[in-house]
Design goal:
Layout (H helix, E strand, L loop, with lengths): L1 H26 L1 H10 L5 H24 L3 H25 L7 E4 L5 H17 L11 H19 L3 H4 L9 H9 L12 E8 L3 H17 L6 E6 L2 H11 L5 E4 L4 H5 L6 E6 L2 E6 L6 H8 L2
Helix pairs in contact: 1-3, 1-5, 2-3, 2-9, 3-4, 3-6, 4-5, 9-10
């Protein structure tokens, strides 16, 4: 009896771990999406979907473990999920990555080695409850169906993918003021009116600027467009800029600390703003959420 109670408590604990992990990922969805995209197994838009499917799977398995129904189905699903994550972590180590795996969002930072240990512990705990019996309930398939529907609806309503939620592009740029900036110091020496150029308006303390830089940096690396065509304009100082690169995990591009308020006025105070130009003419303008990978890739094709 005590063994059965202990296994039941352990099963509930494992279910709660999966649910907490899913909720914390959901609360930090923007970074989790970028983590999924950073492996370049999927396009940016499909990474949005994969990130949400991973969260839904964890929620369903967590609810199923707590319900004590369909024990073998949820047990094998949980073990398969942990094995899949473990293989991904081994691949991350093979690549030399040491960044957070986002297992618990941004709220508990675990590098791949630490996360492998965590997965090992969870798999051992799963082995300890392998021989548990199902609770005999006529509602087991209904519980599974409701768990899937509730998890899917909850995740997509709480955090709709950017490619589905956006109504259209941002148009913040004051083109005349921007042209004036290009003709004056310190930008006139960069010849940004020649060829294809990307100019990013960032604040060093802006989290969405950091994530936009990470997203653009990944696109540049994956699709191979020239890194010397990217310019970061910053509000801040040199120390803040160094911290920005560290926090954003962006590659380091040509950057300028802009000396006056025209930078902020040029984008109506909306940061980040990322401007794509060809021979001095603005072609595309993006914020963090509406960056279009296919459009960017096509524009930067040489």
């Amino acid at each position: 009896m005590s063994r059965s109670l202990g296994q039941s408590a352990l099963k509930v604990l494992l279910g709660l771990v999966f649910i907490v992990s899913a909720v914390l990922k959901l609360l930090d969805m923007d970074r989790f999406e970028l983590y999924v995209y950073s492996y370049h197994f999927f396009s940016l838009n499909f990474s949005f979907i994969v990130a949400r499917l991973a969260i839904i799977l964890e929620l369903v398995l967590g609810i199923g473990l707590i319900s004590h129904t369909l024990h073998k189905l949820y047990w094998w699903g949980s073990m398969a999920m942990l094995l899949g994550y473990t293989l991904l972590l081994w691949y991350a180590l093979h690549l030399g990555r040491t960044d957070s795996c986002h297992c618990f969002g941004d709220y508990l930072q675990l590098d791949p080695k630490q996360s492998l240990v965590k997965n090992g512990v969870l798999m051992l705990l799963l082995l300890a409850i392998y021989k548990m019996e199902n609770w005999k309930t006529p509602f087991r398939w209904l519980i599974l169906s409701l768990a899937i529907m509730a998890s899917a609806i909850g995740v997509f309503v709480a955090s709709p993918p950017d490619n589905l939620a956006n109504s259209g592009p941002d148009h913040n740029l004051q083109v005349e003021l921007f042209d004036e900036m290009l003709d004056d110091a310190p930008l006139e020496r960069l010849h940004l009116d020649e060829g294809k150029q990307i100019v990013c308006f960032f604040s060093t303390s802006c989290e969405y600027c950091q994530m936009a830089a990470r997203k653009l940096s990944l696109m540049q690396q994956f699709h191979g467009f020239p890194d010397d065509r990217i310019t970061y304009l910053f509000m801040g100082n040199e120390e803040d800029v160094s911290m920005f690169y560290k926090l954003s995990e962006s590659a380091r591009y040509r950057d300028i600390i802009y000396p006056d308020a025209r930078m902020l006025k040029a984008v109506k105070g909306n940061l980040p703003t990322i401007v794509f130009m060809e021979n001095g003419k603005v072609v595309h303008e993006y914020g963090f959420r509406n960056m279009d990978e296919e459009e960017i890739k096509a524009f930067m094709a040489f």
